[in-house]
Structure formats: structure tokens, C-alpha cells
Amino acid sequence: MKKSLLSMNGAIMMLKQKKRTVFSVQKNVNPHFKEVWTSKKPYNILKGGRNSFKSSVIALKLVFMMVAFIMQGEKANVVVVRKVGNTIRDSVFNKIQWAIKLFGMTNRFKATVSPFKITHKRTGSTFYFYGQDDFQKLKSNDIEDIIAVWYEEAAEFNDEEDFDQSNVTFMRQKHALAPYVQFFWSYNPPRNPYHWINEWSDRMTGEPDYLVHISSYLDDELGFVTDQMLKDIERIKSNDYDYYRYIYLGEPVGLGANVYNMNLFKPLDELPSDDRIILLFYSMDTGHSVSATTCGFYGLTAKGKVIRLNTYYYSPAGRVRKKAPSELSKDIHEFITKTSTQEYWRGARIHKRTIDSAEAALRNQYYADYGQHWLPVAKKKKVDMVDYVHDLLAQGRFYYLKIPYPIDMKYADDNEIFIEEHKKYQWDEKTLNTDDPKVIKEDDHTVDEFQYFCTANAKELKLKV
């Protein structure tokens, strides 16, 4: 390859275009990431806690690498992969555009969303974005001239074989002037130390072709972590220290037997007088003739509090005649009609109704009866859905009404079963030291629907996404 105009070790990189744009490495990349920025390793694993800026550093380096080829009139391509394609737009697509803007080159690239691509207008150099869930499409695309590949949120993938399948494809399409395709992985280490990616990165540490880099917000020397962010971190640190270690320090702290810290479920005698409810949510777990059907009713306040307002809970246990889906549909509709119109949250609208994705009978019955869709939750592994709940709890934003405002309906007006089921909720100790830990599946119906609620509404609730 021709000698690059851009020094990978230099503090300042100058791009001579119509007007000179100066990108300062020293001002935009923390010293802790120097070995990443200067890495000559083909494989680079970046793991760390939230707000460590590892993804930002990768995005900047990928733009930096592409620009080195562009300045020599060469076309060079970069592939960015996430596990699920529908997460691309709000994550890596925006992150690369942010990095391009820092280089002062926004007007020299064209971004499209169908498909997701960001293309340099003069050379055709392109950032391609894929969801690994559409692997066949990814595998069949002949991109050519590839210089780098980035797997963002790598812990979401099933195992290292997910990478192996596509890596060979990308290697075959290497740019002729590049010594190799440089691969990057970024992720927050899962809480479970036996998760496959924790074991994989440990195994790769010390391998000659691999850089394994660890970071946290404590490594920030340039002031990217704002005072507001630090206050949020300190709040979580004081609420749940283990969760702080896991989410911000990136430590696999383990699971323990009890799933939740019940001190973080905050009881309310009444709604706060200075913080109105602005959005309403419903979440349902169903059982029909075998186990309980429950529907949780939640409110989101203007200040970001999440409050469990009421619970519908019907159990068929011990009953000779059990409710049919048509009867449950009527019950749930009555529950929603009565709760959503109470004066305590007048003006708040229903934002989303979430249901177990495995449930079809009641969902179809409800639509037939009332023309209203319940949205199936996109289920994840149990440990991952639990993490959404942990995030909400650790932020100190979850409350429940000890005594719901009554609607005078059978099987409703009682949040106690919600608390009792969470108190009893435990990991199965036989599965703790495995890649896929399980919970004990007993009396967990309100627990499941709470997880569905947090998972399906993570963006609205400002949880990890």
C-alpha cells in the first residue's frame, strides 16, 4: 500500500479537502485507548462498562481507516454487524454518522436507510450495516475491498460460531492493498462469568493476533463523562453496588440465588403530588387452564418514575370450570377500560399493550372482540430480560401502589401478589455455573409480565438497549 498521508500514531490528522479540516486524536480519543487506536492486530476485542466510550473509539477508527484509503483515491469498504437488524438505525448507523461529522466530512458521504449504507460520494467507499439475523443476505453480498468489520454488542450473538460463519466471507473480500481485514468486537460483559463471550475473551487474552482491551467510565481523562452522567452513576452505585460493578465497571459479578433486591421495589401510599403520570402501559402473561393469567398496569411520570398502579390476576388452580379465552378477553378489556379512565391520571394515554409472544389464543380473541392488537414481546434469554428489570430498579425509579386505587373488579385491586412473587423468584442453583442460567419456574406470572414490560419498553423507560 502507498505510504498513508494519515499517521496512525500522530496526535493530529489533517485532511486536505476544499478547506482544511483538522481532527485531533488527542482531543477525541482517551489515552486509555491508545493501544486500540494504534493496533496492528487482526482481531480486537473491546469490553467494558457503560459510558466507557469503546464504541465511539471504534467508530472513529473505522472512519480514520477509510479516510486513509480515500485520500489515495482508493475505494475501501467497512462492514458493521449487529445481532438483530432492527437495532441498527439507533445505534451503529448513527454512531458512524457522528464519527464522520467529527472528521468534517458529512457533505462528502450519502446515507441511505433501505438498505443501511453510508457511501463516500467520490470514491464509492461504503459503510455497510447488517443484522446477523439476516445472515444469508449478508453472506451472499459480494462487497469486495473490505478493510474492517465491527461486531457491536457482541454479547447478543449466540456463540463464537456466529462470527466464524461470516468472518471467512469477509476475509475472502479483503482489499488488495490491506494486509488483512481488521475485526473489532465491542460489548458490555454479561453478569454471568460463564457466559460464552466472557469465556471466549478470556481465552483470547494473550493470543498473538488478538488485542483484548478493558475499559470503564473511570478511564475517561477528557471529560466525556458529564457531571449529570456521574450523578446517575453514583445513584446506581448507592442503590445496588453489584449492579454498578456489572453495568459501569464491566465486571461479571455473578448471579447469586435471589434474582432481585426487594429493597429497590419502593412502596407508595399514594401518587406523588408533584409528578403527574404521562403514559400508561399494560403487560400480560397468560396461562388459561394450567396457570395464572395476569395483567400489570403501569404509569410513567413526567420525572421518569415507573409506578405499578394495579394488577389483574386470575388463577385457574383448584377450579373445576376454568375461564375460557373469551371470558379472559372480557375481563382484561374491563380491567383496561376501568383503570385507564381513572381520574388520577386523566389525560395520560395508553402507550403500549405487551403480551407473551408465545400466546396466540387470547391475543387473537381480544382482537376479534375489540379490534385491538396486543404486541408480542421480542423475547430474549431470561438473564437478558432480567437485566432490563435490574437496570430500572438500580436507577431507583420503580414504585408500586401498596393499595391500588380501586376499580371494584374481581381479580384486581391488589399489588401484593406482584411483590410476593418477586420475593420468591430465584435462580436455579444447578444452572448458575452455565452459559444459560435458568430461573425456578414457580409462581412467576407477574414476574414474567414485568420483564415483558421492561423489555418491550426499554427505549421509552430509558433502559439499556
UniProtKB/TrEMBL annotation:
NCBIfam families the UniProt entry points to: phage_term_2
A Pfam family recorded for this sequence: Terminase_3
Species, as recorded: Alkalibacterium thalassium
Protein's name in the database: Phage terminase large subunit
Residues annotated as domain Phage terminase large subunit C-terminal: 285-452
Residues in Phage terminase large subunit N-terminal domain copies: 41-251
Family matches, as InterPro entries: P-loop_NTPase, Phage_terminase_lsu, Terminase_L_C, Terminase_L_N, Viral_DNA_packaging_terminase
